[in-house]
Amino acid sequence: MKPGFYRTAALLAALILGALLPQAAEAVWLVQWLIMVMLLLIFLQVRVTRDALHRSHLVLLAVNLAMGFAGWGLGWLVGGREVGLAVFFAGITPTASAAPVVTGFLRGRTEYVIASFLLTNLVISALMPALLPLVLGHATPELFHDVLTKIGVVVFGPLALAWVVRLLHPAASAWPRRLGNASFGLWVLALFLITANAGSFLRRQADLSHTVLLEIAVLSALVCAANFGLGRLIGGRAFPREASQSLGQKNTSLTIYLALTFASPLVALGPTFYVLWHNLWNSWQLHRQHRLAPPPGP
Predict the structure, then answer these.
(1) Cα(64)–Cα(76) distance, integer angstroms
(2) Per-residue pLDDT of the chain (298 residues; tens, 9 = 90+)
(3) What separation, in Å, do the N-terminal and C-terminal C-alpha atoms of the chain show?
(4) Strands (E), the chain
(5) Alpha-carbon distance 188 to 281, whole Å?
(6) CA–CA separation, 152 vs 129, rounded Å?
(7) Structure letter (DSSP) for residue 170
(8) What is the DSSP string of 276-294?
(9) Residue 55, exposed/middle/buried by CB under 10 A (0-12, 13-18, 19+)?
(10) Nearest 5°: phi and psi at 95?
């Protein structure tokens, strides 16, 4: 319980401090580099065998994509374009890098979730240059090129670098395990900067309706609940917990960055609220697991 509790407390502290210190928004440009370092550490250690892939992974990927467009449509109906985009970015987000860790704490099979992470992150990242111009409403060659360039640098750059580093120095695959706390610290710092940027934006928008914020918060919570629930159904009897974490626990750092780059800080609140909801659910799951059985040894 303690690791989950303290990590959730750190994430909540990052959200609160970011809201109280909007001046930190000046350093939001660091988010891109923090994401790239975190992804590099993940790709250094990830190895997926053919046995780890199941047909349910393809269903998870399809539902992940569908959830983005379902959220986009629902958000449009409830609150208009900005709300629709905010919920789109929350729904389209691929599996989180921390999902295998939480699954391990919950006595699940981490290799299944690692395969989900690779499949959803790589496929959704590859599709984003076509999807973003569509939902943003200005599908131009320039925007396609901009998104492709950003995705190439942020996601596929660390992937290629990790492959080269492991090829030249195989022992590098052990680095991420030794730097696990450092990687989490990078995400906390990124979340603090993202929240500060959102807070700075909101303070400049004195006429922004509180209703819009409530709509984004509630709809992102609904998407979160639907993801965890649908994931359990997709996993069936074989992988209920693993599929639930794969679909419900999201790599929000990526879509928050994309929302900030190509939309607005208001739109980025969709995946930012999602951070709160999925960590609250994970904290409850870890608490319940701790009551049922003691935590695993080192």
Answers:
(1) 19
(2) 455 567 667 777 887 898 888 899 888 888 888 878 887 887 787 666 666 788 999 999 999 999 999 999 999 999 999 999 999 999 999 998 778 767 877 788 878 988 898 889 889 988 988 898 889 887 667 777 777 788 788 878 888 898 899 888 888 888 877 776 777 788 788 878 878 887 787 787 767 778 999 999 999 999 999 999 999 999 999 899 999 999 999 988 889 888 988 888 889 899 988 988 887 888 788 767 666 655 444 3
(3) 14
(4) none
(5) 18
(6) 10
(7) G
(8) HHHHHHHHHHHHHHHHHSP
(9) exposed
(10) -60, 140
Instruction: Reduce the DSSP state of residue 250 to 3 states and report it.
Output: strand
What is the rounded distance in angstroms from the CA atom of residue 118 to the CA atom of residue 209? 38
In whole angstroms, give the CA distance from residue 195 to residue 186.
14
Query: Do 88 and 68 contact (CB within 8 A), yes or no?
Result: yes
Q: For the domain bounded by 2-292, which CATH number is listed?
A: 1.20.1530.20
Instruction: Give the closest residue to 7 by CA, choosing from 96, 111, 133.
Output: 96
Let me know if 59 is exposed, middle or buried by CB neighbors in 10 A (0-12, 13-18, 19+): middle
Burial 278-290 (b: 16+ CB within 10 A, else e): bbebbbebbeebe
Q: What angle do CA 153, 156, 161 make, to 5 degrees?
A: 95
Q: Which of 221, 71, 64 is nearest to 135 (CA)?
A: 71
Task: Give CA angle at 115 (67, 8), nearest 5°.
Answer: 70
The phi-psi region of residue 80 (left if phi > 0; otherwise alpha if psi is between -120 and 50; otherwise beta) is left
pTM for the predicted model, two decimal places: 0.79
CA 232 and chain centroid, separation: 19
CA distance 46 to 119: 12
The first and second tokens of residue 69, run together, are: 């467009």
Three state DSSP letters for 129-166: HHHHHHHHCCCCHHHHHHHHHHHHHHHHHHHHHHHHHH
CB 27 within 8 Å of CB 192: no
Tokens representing 17?
A: 């401090």
